[in-house]
Amino acid sequence: MKQLITLLFCIAAMNSMQSQSVVGKWKTIDDATGEAKSIVEVFSKSGKIYAKVVDVLDPAVKYNLCKQCPGDDKNRPILGLNIIKGLSKDGAEYNSGEILDPKNGKLYKCALSLESKDKLKVRGYIGFSLIGRTQYWYRVN
């Protein structure tokens, strides 16, 4: 009985830790309209955090290309595009990487932090974190 309780406690602790991670699928919201825009999958690779667009919710733009994106991302489909690249953990925040805005092709410095287990604060900025904009993404179960 004692082993069963210990096992259940360990499973609950692992689930709690996993839900406290930025890793997972997140719904993005359009700043202007308040409408759900896309589903982005945040993942870890070689100790860094990345994110790619796994679904575009508006059928009219689902297969659009990133025409203004720089470098290798130019003219690639937004669906499947890596939009967050190379963030490192810094306390409760992930930063020191970039976020791409596929709408205008611009790269910004990026910081991610959990507001709650199901709400992710995404900050894109130029230079200092004071000059930028914040979006909130919501976990998809």
Outline of this structure?
The protein is mostly beta strands and 141 residues long.
Structure description:
- By secondary structure, the protein is mainly beta.
- Mean pLDDT is 89; it is low at 4-18.
- It has one helix at residues 2-19; strands at 24-29, 36-45, 48-56, 82-90, 93-101, 106-116, 119-125, 132-139.
- The chain contains 1 helix and 8 strands; from the N terminus they run αββββββββ.
- The protein has an 8-stranded antiparallel β-barrel with strand order 1-2-3-4-5-6-7-8.
- The protein has one domain (22-139): Lipocalin.
- The radius of gyration is 17 Å and the shape is globular.
Reconstruct the topology from this structure:
Elements: H1 2-19, E1 24-29, E2 36-45, E3 48-56, E4 82-90, E5 93-101, E6 106-116, E7 119-125, E8 132-139
Antiparallel strand pairs: 1-2, 1-8, 2-3, 3-4, 4-5, 5-6, 6-7, 7-8
Unreliable spans: 4-18
- By oligomeric state, this entry counts as single chain
Rg calc: 17 Å
Tally of separate domains = 1
If you consult CATH, what is the topology? Lipocalin
Question: Overall 3D geometry?
Answer: globular
- Specify the number of helices: 1
The helix/strand class is mainly beta
Pfam families: DUF2147
Organism: Flavobacterium ammoniigenes
Protein name: DUF2147 domain-containing protein
Domain DUF2147: 24-139
